Amino acid sequence: MSYDTDNIFAKILRGEIPCHKVYEDDDAIVFMDVMPQAPGHALVVPKAASRNIFDADPTTLAALAPLVQKIARAAVAAFEADGVTILQFNEPAGGQTVFHLHIHVIPRHDDSPLRSHSGKMEDPEVLAANADKLRQAIHA
Ligand code: AMP
Questions:
Q1: What are 52-64's pLDDT values in tens digits?
Q2: Residue nearest to atom 17 of ligand 1 (CA)
Q3: What distance, in Å, lies between the first and last C-alpha atoms of the chain?
Q4: In a 10 Å sphere around its CB, with 0-12 CB exposed, 13-18 middle and 19+ buried, how is residue 119 labelled?
Q5: Which tens digits make up the pLDDT trace of 25-62?
Protein backbone atom coordinates (compact mmCIF):
# COMPACT_ATOMS: atom_id res chain seq x y z
CA MET A 1 0.00 0.00 0.00
CA SER A 2 1.45 3.35 -1.01
CA TYR A 3 0.62 6.99 -0.38
CA ASP A 4 -1.64 8.60 -3.02
CA THR A 5 -0.83 12.32 -3.33
CA ASP A 6 -4.33 12.92 -4.74
CA ASN A 7 -6.17 11.88 -1.57
CA ILE A 8 -8.62 14.49 -0.31
CA PHE A 9 -6.64 15.46 2.80
CA ALA A 10 -3.51 16.00 0.71
CA LYS A 11 -5.58 18.36 -1.44
CA ILE A 12 -6.79 20.19 1.68
CA LEU A 13 -3.19 20.45 2.93
CA ARG A 14 -2.13 21.94 -0.42
CA GLY A 15 -5.02 24.42 -0.25
CA GLU A 16 -6.65 22.99 -3.36
CA ILE A 17 -9.98 22.36 -1.65
CA PRO A 18 -11.50 24.19 1.32
CA CYS A 19 -12.01 23.02 4.87
CA HIS A 20 -13.32 24.39 8.16
CA LYS A 21 -9.87 24.87 9.68
CA VAL A 22 -9.56 25.38 13.43
CA TYR A 23 -5.82 25.10 14.00
CA GLU A 24 -2.54 24.89 12.11
CA ASP A 25 1.12 24.71 13.05
CA ASP A 26 4.30 23.62 11.26
CA ASP A 27 3.48 19.94 11.63
CA ALA A 28 -0.30 19.57 11.51
CA ILE A 29 -3.68 20.98 10.63
CA VAL A 30 -7.01 20.48 12.40
CA PHE A 31 -10.35 20.85 10.64
CA MET A 32 -13.96 19.82 11.09
CA ASP A 33 -15.13 16.46 9.78
CA VAL A 34 -17.79 17.14 7.14
CA MET A 35 -19.74 14.03 8.19
CA PRO A 36 -19.51 14.38 11.96
CA GLN A 37 -20.27 11.42 14.19
CA ALA A 38 -21.25 13.97 16.86
CA PRO A 39 -21.35 17.80 16.84
CA GLY A 40 -17.83 19.21 16.99
CA HIS A 41 -16.12 16.17 15.42
CA ALA A 42 -12.64 17.32 14.31
CA LEU A 43 -9.75 15.68 12.49
CA VAL A 44 -6.10 16.10 13.49
CA VAL A 45 -4.03 15.70 10.33
CA PRO A 46 -0.21 15.66 10.30
CA LYS A 47 1.32 17.45 7.32
CA ALA A 48 3.85 14.67 6.74
CA ALA A 49 2.69 12.37 3.96
CA SER A 50 1.77 9.02 5.44
CA ARG A 51 -1.06 6.71 4.49
CA ASN A 52 -1.80 5.51 8.01
CA ILE A 53 -0.16 4.12 11.15
CA PHE A 54 1.80 1.50 9.23
CA ASP A 55 4.01 3.81 7.18
CA ALA A 56 4.06 6.86 9.49
CA ASP A 57 7.40 7.97 10.85
CA PRO A 58 7.47 7.45 14.64
CA THR A 59 8.34 11.13 15.08
CA THR A 60 5.12 12.03 13.24
CA LEU A 61 3.13 9.81 15.60
CA ALA A 62 4.91 11.17 18.67
CA ALA A 63 4.17 14.77 17.67
CA LEU A 64 0.48 13.97 17.20
CA ALA A 65 -0.35 12.94 20.76
CA PRO A 66 0.11 16.35 22.45
CA LEU A 67 -1.95 18.03 19.72
CA VAL A 68 -4.72 15.45 20.03
CA GLN A 69 -4.73 16.14 23.78
CA LYS A 70 -4.94 19.90 23.14
CA ILE A 71 -7.89 19.46 20.76
CA ALA A 72 -9.64 17.01 23.10
CA ARG A 73 -9.38 19.48 26.00
CA ALA A 74 -10.63 22.30 23.79
CA ALA A 75 -13.52 20.13 22.55
CA VAL A 76 -14.72 19.57 26.12
CA ALA A 77 -14.65 23.31 26.76
CA ALA A 78 -16.18 24.30 23.42
CA PHE A 79 -19.06 21.84 23.42
CA GLU A 80 -19.54 21.28 27.17
CA ALA A 81 -18.80 17.64 26.46
CA ASP A 82 -18.94 14.90 29.09
CA GLY A 83 -16.19 13.00 27.32
CA VAL A 84 -14.25 12.65 24.07
CA THR A 85 -13.85 9.68 21.74
CA ILE A 86 -10.52 9.40 19.87
CA LEU A 87 -10.59 7.18 16.77
CA GLN A 88 -8.01 6.24 14.15
CA PHE A 89 -8.66 3.79 11.28
CA ASN A 90 -6.12 1.88 9.16
CA GLU A 91 -6.80 0.37 5.72
CA PRO A 92 -10.29 -0.41 4.42
CA ALA A 93 -10.60 -3.47 6.64
CA GLY A 94 -9.89 -1.19 9.59
CA GLY A 95 -12.53 1.32 8.50
CA GLN A 96 -10.23 3.86 6.83
CA THR A 97 -11.81 5.84 3.99
CA VAL A 98 -9.30 8.68 3.46
CA PHE A 99 -5.73 7.48 2.99
CA HIS A 100 -3.74 10.21 4.72
CA LEU A 101 -3.05 9.59 8.42
CA HIS A 102 -5.49 11.38 10.72
CA ILE A 103 -7.02 11.13 14.17
CA HIS A 104 -10.68 11.76 14.96
CA VAL A 105 -11.53 13.83 18.05
CA ILE A 106 -15.23 13.52 18.83
CA PRO A 107 -16.93 15.35 21.71
CA ARG A 108 -19.41 13.11 23.53
CA HIS A 109 -22.39 13.71 25.76
CA ASP A 110 -23.93 11.28 28.22
CA ASP A 111 -26.63 9.12 26.63
CA SER A 112 -25.92 10.45 23.12
CA PRO A 113 -24.88 7.62 20.76
CA LEU A 114 -22.16 8.03 18.15
CA ARG A 115 -23.55 8.55 14.64
CA SER A 116 -22.31 6.33 11.82
CA HIS A 117 -18.82 6.75 10.37
CA SER A 118 -18.78 8.71 7.06
CA GLY A 119 -22.55 8.97 7.35
CA LYS A 120 -24.44 12.19 6.66
CA MET A 121 -22.94 15.45 5.34
CA GLU A 122 -23.42 18.30 7.84
CA ASP A 123 -24.79 21.72 6.90
CA PRO A 124 -21.77 24.00 6.17
CA GLU A 125 -23.20 26.70 8.46
CA VAL A 126 -23.27 24.24 11.36
CA LEU A 127 -19.68 23.20 10.59
CA ALA A 128 -18.59 26.84 10.47
CA ALA A 129 -20.28 27.60 13.80
CA ASN A 130 -18.70 24.56 15.46
CA ALA A 131 -15.31 25.45 13.97
CA ASP A 132 -15.63 28.92 15.55
CA LYS A 133 -16.41 27.43 18.96
CA LEU A 134 -13.51 24.98 18.80
CA ARG A 135 -11.08 27.62 17.49
CA GLN A 136 -11.96 29.96 20.36
CA ALA A 137 -11.50 27.19 22.93
CA ILE A 138 -8.12 26.22 21.43
CA HIS A 139 -6.87 29.79 21.71
CA ALA A 140 -8.49 30.54 25.10
P1 AMP B 1 -11.38 7.61 7.97
O2 AMP B 1 -12.43 6.58 7.69
O3 AMP B 1 -10.76 7.50 9.31
O4 AMP B 1 -10.41 7.66 6.82
O5 AMP B 1 -12.18 8.97 8.05
C6 AMP B 1 -12.21 9.93 7.06
C7 AMP B 1 -13.11 11.02 7.61
O8 AMP B 1 -12.96 12.11 6.77
C9 AMP B 1 -14.59 10.66 7.65
O10 AMP B 1 -15.07 10.82 8.96
C11 AMP B 1 -15.23 11.65 6.68
O12 AMP B 1 -16.46 12.11 7.14
C13 AMP B 1 -14.20 12.76 6.64
N14 AMP B 1 -14.10 13.52 5.41
C15 AMP B 1 -14.14 13.07 4.14
N16 AMP B 1 -13.95 14.08 3.27
C17 AMP B 1 -13.76 15.19 4.02
C18 AMP B 1 -13.50 16.56 3.72
N19 AMP B 1 -13.41 17.00 2.46
N20 AMP B 1 -13.38 17.43 4.75
C21 AMP B 1 -13.48 17.01 6.02
N22 AMP B 1 -13.73 15.74 6.38
C23 AMP B 1 -13.86 14.84 5.39
A1: 999 999 999 999 9
A2: 34
A3: 40
A4: exposed
A5: 999 999 999 999 999 999 999 999 999 999 999 999 99
Please give the Cα distance from 131 to 133 (Å, whole number). Answer: 5
49: CA distance to ligand 1 center in Å?
Answer: 16
Its domain, for residue 20, covers 8-138
| CB of 46 closer than 8 Å to CB of 27 | yes
Confidence at residue 1, expressed as pLDDT on a 0 to 100 scale: 80
Within a domain: 114: yes
Number of the ligand 1 atom closest to the C-alpha atom of 102? 3
> For this structure, is 102 an active site residue?
yes
CB–CB of 52/92 below 8 Å?
Answer: no
3 domain-assigned? no
Distance 33 CA to ligand 1 centre (A): 6
Q: Is 1 within a domain?
A: no
CA 22 to chain centre: 10
Top mutation candidate among 97, 100, 115 for ligand 1, by most atoms within 8 Å of CB: 97
Q: Where are the beta strands (DSSP E) in 1-140?
A: 21-24, 28-32, 42-46, 83-87, 103-108
